[in-house]
Every structure is written in C-alpha cells, then in structure tokens.
Amino acid sequence: MRLPKFFKYGTEMINKEFITRLAEEALQENESLFLIDVKVSQASEIKVVIDGDEGVDLEEIIRVSRAIEHAEGMDREAEDFSLEVTTPGIDAPLCNPRQYRKNIGRTLAVVKVDGSGCEGERVDATDESVMIEWVTREPKPVGKGKVNVTHSSTIPYSEIKKAGSRHDKPH
C-alpha cells in the first residue's frame, strides 16, 4: 500500500513538516497572519495554531483550514484525520516576537530561564527582545514619604522560559 504525501514513511503517522508547509502557504495570502504551532497526534488529529497582528477573524480560520484540508496530497480516503485550526487562547504563553509586538501596552508576566521573574507593561518589542516597565513605591531620597519610581528591563527572548499577558489588570 502506498502512503499519501502527508504521511511519514515507515511511521504510519501524518507528517508534521508537510502540514506546517501547507499552513505557511495558506498564511502567505494574508501577511498579518503567522503560524504559532502545528501538532499532530498518533490518532491523526492535526491542530494548527495561528495568530495575527490584529487578531484573526473566523473567515481567516475557515480559509486556512480549507486550504490545508483540500491541498494536493491530503486524502481523507487514504486516511481519516481531524483538522483543527485555532488561535492561541487568552492564557496561552507567548512564543513569537510578533505576539509581543501586537500587545504593546499590556501587562506581561515573565519567567526567565534562570528561574527569576518579573512583571510590567510592554513598551517595546523587537525581533530579539521585549522591554517592560513597572512602577514601585520607594522612600524619598530626602525626607519622609515615598515616591513612584519607574524601572525598565529589556529581556532577550533567549532568556525567557515562559511569558504571558496578564488580562486581569487594567492597562
């Protein structure tokens, strides 16, 4: 029996790289969209996670899903599979620089690779790092009382173990 293109030969499992290529091709039609993740289970369940610089509307999810499902090499008669195209959930960790940029102004909670953490408002994001600011109340240098002091930190993505937007605070 000859396996369809979307199978890894010798494993009887859907080829993740093939699905990734199909998703990336479908996303090229809208430059504001980008791929976050592709997961393929042994039960032939395919999950494609996409995001967009201005969010993702339902029509785009349907378009990407149909582009993958009806692509040459995808054959439901050869193998039954399920396909889910979705966006990251509100609590999903950030993993792409474009996700950091699209949420400038929102509160970001970061856990660094070294185990330390910080939280602050995103003020800038590049392809290499994110900058956050936060305010603390500190004693006045002279006299009694406290003053607000703004701190900032630029964190390279390579130092971030996990980061997510905080939606429970106003921004």
Provide structural commentary:
By secondary structure, the protein is an alpha+beta fold. It has three helices and ten strands, in the order E-E-H-E-E-H-E-H-E-E-E-E-E. It has helices at residues 16-27, 58-69, 97-102, and strands spanning 7-8, 13-14, 33-40, 45-52, 82-86, 107-112, 117-125, 129-139, 146-156, 160-166. The strands form three sheets. The protein has a five-stranded antiparallel beta sheet. Helix 2 (58-69) links the parallel strand 4 (45-52) and strand 5. Helix 1 (16-27) crosses helix 2 (58-69).
Keywords, please?
alpha+beta; 5-stranded antiparallel β-sheet; 3-stranded mixed β-sheet; 3 helices; 18% helix; 40% strand; elongated
Assign a percent range to the helix content. Answer: 10-25%
Structural class: alpha+beta
The description of the largest β-sheet is: 5 strands, antiparallel
Calculate the terminal CA-CA distance, rounded to whole Å.
58 Å
Overall, the morphology is elongated
Spatial extent as radius of gyration: 21 Å
Task: Spell out the helices and strands N to C.
Answer: EEHEEHEHEEEEE
Number of strands: 10
Q: Roughly what is the average pLDDT, rounded to an integer?
A: 87
Number of helices: 3
Beta-strand residue percentage: 35-45%
Strands side by side in the biggest sheet: 9-8-7-6-10
Which consecutive residue ranges, at least 5 long each, have pLDDT under 50? none
